[in-house]
């Protein structure tokens, strides 16, 4: 069994943060390792908490979320996935966030399932893009691992077989399939394979 995703939360609204914390801890594959209401305190303690994902607000006292994201990226690069949860969903904010390397920019109106999905997808390296910004460069590119999974699916392998052959858990295979379907804008394995051939991501088995 894989270890849970370690999540860190930053928000200066206690009720918002406590509600999200309680909801995330109901997920068997997630564990909240820290909650903060002040960015500088987060920076002081993040090294000892070793989170996989940080969910941060943009509007914070003392240091805005963009400066915090830039600092975290300079220090930890891709070791910590960043998700912005903000009440401000302006195009310029979203563009700036993606330029800084965040993996998802969500409105505070997002549902808990949407936030949970963003956390899981960020662990696969997927960057979730708001619908109106779907043309953001690189938003639909499959990672090398996703391509390998798609190739196995094209060979009619089951998730169990793919997990064994790629040395990963079935849950991870499912996460990769969800990422592949979203990036290729399809709903089924058959649709993913068809789109893979159409985009040249797969080599045809027969001429």
Descriptive overview:
With 207 residues, the chain is α/β, with parallel strands linked by helices. It contains 9 helices and 5 strands. It has helices at residues 14-24, 39-49, 65-76, 91-99, 112-122, 144-154, 159-165, 170-184, 189-198, and strands spanning 5-10, 30-36, 53-56, 81-86, 104-107. A 5-stranded parallel beta sheet has the order 2-1-3-4-5, sandwiched between helices. β1, α1 (14-24) and β2 form a beta-alpha-beta unit. α6 (144-154) crosses α9 (189-198), α7 crosses α8 and α8 (170-184) crosses α9. The longest helix has 15 residues, at 170-184. The protein is globular, with a radius of gyration of 18 Å. The chain starts with a strand and ends in a 9-residue tail after the last helix. Residues 132-139 have low confidence and may be disordered.
Order of helices and strands: EHEHEHEHEHHHHH
Residue-averaged pLDDT:
85
* Contiguous runs where pLDDT drops below 50 for at least 5 residues: 132-139
Shape type? globular
Beta-strand residue fraction: 5-15%
Major beta-sheet overview: 5 strands, parallel
Radius of gyration: 18 Å
Which strand order do you get reading across the main beta sheet? Answer: 2-1-3-4-5
Euclidean distance between termini CA atoms: 41 Å
User: What's the count of strands?
Assistant: 5
Helix content: 40-55%
Secondary structure tally, helices: 9
Structural class: alpha/beta
């Amino acid at each position: 069994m894989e270890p849970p995703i370690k999540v860190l939360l930053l928000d200066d609204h206690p009720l918002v943060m406590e509600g999200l914390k309680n909801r995330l801890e109901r997920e068997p594959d997630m564990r909240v390792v820290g909650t903060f209401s002040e960015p500088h305190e987060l920076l002081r303690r993040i090294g000892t908490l070793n989170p996989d994902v940080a969910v941060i607000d943009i509007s914070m006292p003392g240091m805005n979320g963009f400066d915090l994201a830039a600092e975290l990226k300079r220090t930890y690069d891709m070791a910590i996935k960043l998700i912005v949860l903000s009440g401000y969903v302006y195009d310029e904010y979203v563009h700036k966030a993606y330029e800084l390397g965040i993996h998802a920019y969500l409105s505070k109106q997002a549902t808990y399932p949407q936030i949970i999905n963003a956390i899981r997808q960020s662990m696969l390296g997927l960057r979730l893009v708001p619908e109106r910004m779907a043309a953001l460069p690189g938003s639909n590119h499959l990672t090398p691992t996703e391509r390998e999974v798609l190739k196995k699916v094209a060979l009619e392998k089951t998730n169990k077989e793919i997990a064994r052959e790629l040395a990963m858990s079935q849950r991870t295979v499912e996460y990769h399939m969800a990422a592949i379907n979203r990036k290729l804008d399809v709903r089924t394995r058959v649709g993913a394979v068809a789109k893979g051939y159409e985009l040249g991501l797969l080599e045809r088995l027969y001429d």
